[in-house]
Amino acid sequence: MQLTDAQRVDWLRLIRTDGVGPRTFRGLINRFGGAGPALDALPDLTAARGRRITPPTRGEAEAEIAAAARLGVRLTAMGEADYPKPLQATDSAPPLLAIRGETAAFRRPSVAIVGSRNASAAGLAFTERLARALGEAGLVVVSGLARGIDARAHRAALATGTVAVLAGGQDRIYPAHHAGLVDEILGAGGAVVAEMPMGWEPRGRDFPRRNRIISGLALGSVVVEAARRSGSLITARFALEQGREVFAVPGSPLDPRAEGTNDLIRQGATLVAEPDHVLLVLALLVVDDGTASPLAVDRPDLADEPIFWDEIDLDGIALSVPAEGLAEATPTGLGEAVDDRARLIAYLSPTPMGTDELARASGLSVRVVQTTLLELELDGRIERHGSGAVSLIGQ
């Protein structure tokens, strides 16, 4: 899929609307067939729920796109070639991702390395050794640009490839003194990504939002040092919920910075004492496009996810769009998605089937099957089983 300029403006207006997060965005696209029709319907739809919401104007969206372009930032949509495929496979992936730098990093397998801001010297030394070795083995290192472990991981992987995920807008680097590190990452051929608008100063709950993107970009997440209640453990939780690997570096029981990592190991995370402990696990997951093979994990109920957005409640609203209006309003590529959805549903049944089997039976590409299954899962139409198999729920 490739959005036109007009469609990109519509997508940006919709995701920047109060009450619209990734889940509501997908629900509106599915109901109306595109962002344009959803924008037209949204004020009356929300008024019927007792709270009339008006999307940002076209001029406001165009101004944000222009400001991003001046900084060399591209707003890339899910489904477009440069959107990171591992992130796209997650339940709460941003519909639009602000990307600065080289997108070649997204076509290689990645590993996240996160940890304490107030890291120990031993933790920093191990992080440097680990990030350098994983980078030399062909993995891109993803982290959150924070002080301590994150910054050391980025610097150790500059020569081999690293991606930084921001909690605020692309023009609001946090912490501010890491602006130079951002320049180093971009100068070395890495990338910096953000979900939030230009000019957005990061707030408390923006950091967990960022953490789900860090884990979503990677095959697995390594936690080097983390206190018992820390943001790094949130990243580990997201990695587990996204079906990714979780690794932890053990530490002294006398060091509070090791309490979280030691707990992760006790709960089943892979212990990491040398780079090979990560490489041997991830080597089994890497396929040609750098994404993870299906993992036999229990996927979380979306209702149990953390509340990041005050999203509009669309449950119980029966909507219909005239067929002729839908055909005119559907962006290029999304009309085909409606047909792909119907075709795939025809091949689904209460008997679990694998993604490859569904692709062969339906004649759709594996990428289209995976994307469509994600939409069906968000609608509560399918159930996931071990080894990537899915089955239809009801009719």
TrEMBL record:
Annotated GO biological process: DNA-mediated transformation
Smf/DprA SLOG domain mapped to chain residues: 76-279
Listed SUPFAM superfamilies: MCP/YpsA-like
InterPro entries to which the protein is assigned, alphabetical: DprA, DprA_WH, DrpA_SLOG, WH-like_DNA-bd_sf
Pfam family, one: WHD_DprA
Domain DprA winged helix: 334-386
Family membership: Belongs to the DprA/Smf family.
Name of the protein in question: DNA-protecting protein DprA
